Amino acid sequence: MYRFRMPSLGADMEAGTLVEWLKHPGDPVHRGDIVAVVETDKGAIEVEIFVDGTMGRQLVPLDSKVPVGTPLAEIEGAEEEKEAKAPAPAAAVPAPATPSPKPAAAPASVQGLRASPAARKLAAQKDVDLAALKGTGPGGTIVLHDVERAAAGAKLPHRGLDLEKMRAAIAAAMARSKREIPHYYLATDIDLSAALAWLEKTNAARTPEQRLLPAVMTLKSVALAAKKYPAFNGFYDPAKGFAPAKAVHIGNAVAIRGGGLVSPAIHDCDRLTLDQLMEKLRDLVARAREGRLRSSEMSDATVTVSSLGERGVESLYGIIYPPQVAIVGFGTVTRRPIAVDEKLEIRSVVTATLAADHRVSDGHLGARFLKHMAALLQEPEKL
Amino acid sequence: MSGEVTYRDACREAIRDAMKRDPRVFLMGEDVGHYGGCYAVSKGLLDEFGPERIRDTPLSESGFTGLGIGAAMNGMRPIVEIMTVNFALLALDQIVNNAATIRHMSGNQFGVPLVVRMATGAGKQLAAQHSHSLEGWFAHIPGLKVLAPATLEDARGMLWTALEDPDPVLIFEHVMLYNMTGSLAAEAGAVAIDKAAIRREGKDVSLITYGGSLPKAVDAAGQLAKDGVSAEVIDLRTLRPLDDETIMASVRKTRRAVIVDEGWRSGSISAEISARILEQALWSLDAPVARVCSAEIPIPYPHHLEEAALPQVPAILAAVRGTLG
Amino acid sequence: MNKDEIRSVVVKELGKIAPETDATSIDPDADLREELDIDSLDFLNFLTALHKRTGVNVPEPDYRKLLTLNGAIAYLADKLK
Amino acid sequence: MSAQKLHLTRESLLGLLHQMTRVRRFEEKCDELYQSEKIRGFLHLAIGEEAISTAVMANLTPDDAVVATYREHGHALVRGVPARDIMAEMYGKAEGCSRGRGGSMHLFSAAHRFYGGYAIVGGGLPLAAGLALADKMQGKRRVTACFFGEGAAAEGEFHETMNLAELWKLPVLFICENNLYAMGTRLDLSESQTDIHAKAQSYKIPSESVDGMDVVAVDAAAARAVAAIRTGDGPHFIECKTYRFRAHSMFDPQLYRSKEEVEEWKKRDPIPRLTNWMREAGMLHDKDIEKIEADVKDEIADAVGFAESGTLEPVSEMTRFVHAEAAP
């Protein structure tokens, strides 16, 4: 016995309301006859029947909304179409629209700490505590290199600074310097007591952020001397001879943690105040150690200064960096007895040395250069 | 053709070479014949090949693009020139609903071996309606291939490979490149169209770009080198399919990505590339992916505003520095 | 700030100055300049950081009191009592 | 019926009757299958318009090409696409003529140069002209028949295509099935010029209007137009005035037209019109009709069985043919 069901009358129709029967139980029906009217969201639609037979029991009360497929009436004398056994649809396993690549397992995240994904991943692998690191990435973010350095204990070259390459470069420059430049050497002891006293008085009134180091005074004295004696501030080209530099850019040798040396230039050092020089020094040393020096800073020093700092020996004789023509060395400041007006006094003394290119200048001029530096250091407030 | 040539010359030689080699190839578009092409790419071709194969069309972008599709389905290899991507909006229905769809929808019964060439991009003060850069839209559509030749070799070599492709290929020629001059080998010929190219090696940051923005990226990389920053420049060449392999290899090396895209950033090709980098190379990143795109405004007419709206070298340098910290 | 907090601040700041050596594993009474190969600028940066993090402004004459790990911790603890 | 059709033979008229009956019964079956949710999506029936596709296809050779619209089941059937392949396509089965991917609105068959149904009104017109352009450029003397409704005349693509086709003298036969309603909008509510073939004449295309409910009249007009096109004198345009007895598509309560109008047009149903005319001319016996109805019933039952037992394309295959695959 065929059951007349609520038909699907549109793609987005889920249910319909039977509002009127046009055929009543006992009436004959033929394929194509309109047997009922169904109300849908879009309006009333006349519904046809697709079988021949006689209208039987009507199963759904009028004005009741029923889902598509609900039997509405029985039709006697008509057979339910034997459903051709439709094959079970192939297992329609929904393949993901585009196979998204499997994201690697995320390392345990460290709250609040700004670290790049690459840094987090390596830190997790190498068991490095991110909290202990100082980030050199954008906005102080800890980047992979910071973790690499921490993990490998500083032996690793700074990003951008390859220690082996640097060592090779220094070796080549020094060897060439020794081969080509006829060095002569001079030294003098300079009493820094006045300078250091002035510095101590100046720093006492300052917080650590603004305090000065002795290095700024020695660097400034070299810059002013180089300004006065251009024969020590320029470049020597075997073909064209010596060319004095137009400005004074002091190459300040900086030791890199884990070995290595680089001498970034402090531009126009002669025209900087001590405060400006201190700020420049802090910036340059920090960036030198992180391998983020600009190439311009690496290449245009006009004269170099090398210093042993607090824990070195009395005197340091440098090797000139070609194509420069001079290098000034400062040993460690020590307490030494020196004669002052026929009396022996203990003073803070530093030995300053000058190594210079004999093709450009000679000892006499070199001595006046060193003497002028020493004089400048006696009046620190004027530096 | 060799020695000093322009990008425009390279495009013309590509068309002429294709038409000489394959009788099925013909050029159809507005003013491609007597006028010689809005950007003079097809100058002289009408005299050489005649009106049958160099067909000026009425201003009916949907019409003649549809004709190109039908002709391609029936044995020809048409090159349809839509003067600029701005007018291609009128042909979107034919390109998206017909060209890109028919092979798949017909169960592989019919293909559309059609090439559509369009000028794109801003920089000539043509104002909002003539300065669009919408190649990213088309790169959204499965069934299409989308190319952006940025060098003389690619302008000369991509067309033949595209014509041989059994499916529709769109070629976007940036308006600011037409006058680019350089040397091109006499025997320069067809090039592959499925791979990106590394235009400059580098290890600190990957500059990912295409088409008209390539010269700016190369310029930026040069300036960065002076500051000790080694930038790698990737010329995408194809926007669909994107060459994920080359992009990710570079980003995994440099850990930083800056994408330069003249489209508007929302829903742009740069957004797609950025998403793919996050999906495939997240754990190599040391900084968020940066994007340098056009300002999200209709491109203004006055020179100073247009310059300010478009991605420029200073913005690229700033974006790179942003990733370096 | 109690002693432990001071210790972690000192260790953290030394870690930033000399990241490759583990500040907790050095001899707490040895000269930091030798242990961690720190120069005058590093030491000044160390004091600058301590000033920012704890508010204690160490005058130059007191520098030698902070040359060891224990010394630095004791000095700060005293100042922050 | 136009009397000047002299050489009408019983055999050719029976052929037309058989085709129209095939389309009519096929569409009725689709209507039933849609209501039992076997066919989904959109379904546009051509019941009442059978004369046009039947008559035009009768004048095409296998080498000609056809471009149709979403109301295309009849066009595909009469063009020769097997009922099985069409029904399977309606069921979305892989055995369908478009691999189940196109459905009712996108039937394709390369073997029959049936270049598809298109769902964007007017979308097929430029494409059809393009097929003709290629024929002309390759010196092939064949015709592309392009079917569309009067609704397309409002689309820009209609005007761009008419101009290009005449401008370049392309071998394309435009057949406008004017059934007075673009979905729910009557023609005089959307067109200033409701005389569609006059629009084509404005582009200098030879065009005429014919009673789309008279299969013989359409046949005569198509024969003249196709013959002219084959001589190479460019496109022709036939406007067939017709009427669809059913809704635009499923789920359309037809609020836009009256029942009386529908009944009025049903009186001009092309099938009884032909059978009555043949009976008067003594060319038709009851057994002819019974045979046709029986053959058609079997053909459709077979098609439904084929579709029911069809398979679904595996999801793993769905990314195939976005692009061509390299020849094996």
What's a concise summary of this model?
The complex is a heterotetramer of chains A (383), B (325), C (81) and D (328). Chain A has 383 residues and is of the alpha+beta class. Chain A has helices spanning 117-126, 144-152, 163-180, 193-204, 214-228, 274-289, 295-299, 363-378; strands spanning 2-5, 15-21, 28-29, 34-40, 43-48, 53-58, 65-67, 71-76, 183-191, 234-237, 241-244, 250-252, 254-255, 261-262, 265-266, 303-307, 326-330, 334-340, 343-357.
Structure overview:
The complex is a heterotetramer of chains A (383), B (325), C (81) and D (328). With 383 residues, chain A is an alpha+beta fold. Chain A contains eight helices and 19 strands. In chain A, strands 9, 12, 15, 16, 17, 18 and 19 form a seven-stranded mixed sheet that branches. In chain A, strands 1-8-6-3 form a four-stranded antiparallel sheet, with no helix packed on it. A four-stranded antiparallel sheet of chain A has the order 5-4-2-7, with no helix packed on it. In chain A, α1 (117-126) runs parallel beside α2 (144-152), α5 packs across α6 and α5 (214-228) crosses α8. The longest helix of chain A is centred in the middle third of the chain and has 18 residues, at 163-180. Chain C has four helices and no strands. Chain C has a single domain (3-79), classed as ACP-like (Non-ribosomal Peptide Synthetase Peptidyl Carrier Protein, Chain A, Orthogonal Bundle). With 81 residues, chain C is an all-alpha fold. Chain D has eleven helices and seven strands. Chain D has helices at 10-35, 50-57, 73-79, 83-90, 124-137, 156-167, 196-202, 215-230, 259-266, 270-280, 286-308, and strands at 65-67, 144-149, 172-178, 181-182, 185-186, 207-211, 236-241. Chain D has a five-stranded parallel sheet with strand order 1-2-3-7-6, with helices on both faces. A two-stranded antiparallel sheet of chain D has the order 4-5. Chain D is globular and about 50 Å long. Classes of the chains: A alpha+beta (383), B alpha/beta (325), C mainly alpha (81), D alpha/beta (328). Chains in contact: A-B, A-C, A-D, B-D. The A-B interface holds A 100-101, 103-104, 116-119, 121, 135-141, 143-145, 160, 292-296, 298 and B 204, 225-228, 255, 279-280, 282-287, 322-325.
